[in-house]
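Problem 12. The chain below contains 374 residues. Write out its predicted structure in token notation.
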Amino acid sequence: MKVMILSNQTRSMLNFWSVLVRQIQALGHEVVACAPPGDDESDLALAEKGVPVIHYPLDRKGLNPVRDIRSLAVLRGIFARHRPDLLFATTIKPVIYGCMAAKSAHVPKIFATITGLGYAFEADTIIKKGINLLSSMLYKKALSGINGIFFQNLDDVEVFRKAGILSPSAKVFMSRGTGVDTERFAPAPFPAGAVRFLLIGRLLEAKGLNEYARAAAILEKEWPEVCCQLLGQPESGMGSVPLARIEAWQSEGFIEYLGECRDVRPYIAQSHVIVLPSWREGTPTAIMEAMSMGRPCVVSDAPGCREVVREGYNGFLVPVRDAEALAGAMGNFLRDPAIIAVMGEKGRQLAVADFDADKVAAKIINDMGLEAVK
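Solution.
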């Protein structure tokens, strides 16, 4: 069987779905990747794993209908030409246009995974409400009649049901995000020196960057030695945080921006606590990776985030968009540094028990009905 994994970038496919790919290949199936061009290094890394990459055009963040229609048309041609037996689509636009194109090209089995609701479902402005309505219509058309839809938290399922996106007959499966490779993200000793916080995430408002910067400013008044770092890929378009703002925070001494990277492990190893005050997630991979490496976490009490952190056990939950509460939770580790190692160890135990990527991948494969080739 030929299994095609469709995503919005090969880097995320390489980082998040490698275990799933490996398990599908171990069953004797062929795996093909389909993603936009522009990352030759990740393309080569996938090819070395026996996964050829097919490119298609995609405007990840844009709202230009002409470009989206082109993506739809090109994908239909790719599916008709390469004839996959099963499509596994992930992230917003690949799910929408990939599932539409796959149905048009008569791909036998089609599965989608909802990794998060994104900008469109914040709906706190007139523009966002308009985008929300359009997205709901597109999702409904794309997901209708496919073989299964994977969600990463029950809150997102409820949102889709209330929006009328899911039909009563829709086959809904749950997954623990992409899981985490607990061997690759092995426990790391804590660095010496002052407590160091780290936020890992794309430079988007919805990741809670503004709240993180304000919390850092609050903490700096009481603990001048505190270090609050930020690691993430710059973004453009609606909802992004411009680099100029990041640089302003850095010049004020609140945030240290580390740029972007392909491997987060060295940065997690050099931190004490991972912070993610996101407004909403599917299941946050960065937090699962941090837990696996033995780091406690501070996250917002939001869909997706609350699934991975237990209050007072392996970290703390704070209200969404509340910088003062965030500063208070982060301050717990400054007032009592001894809890860092204790909560970190509990996080590692949770990662191994509940979020191990091999277990997550095995469940996805079972839900899709993939069996070993005889």
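Discussion. The chain has 14 helices and 13 strands. Students who got a different answer should revisit the alignment rule from Section 12.3.
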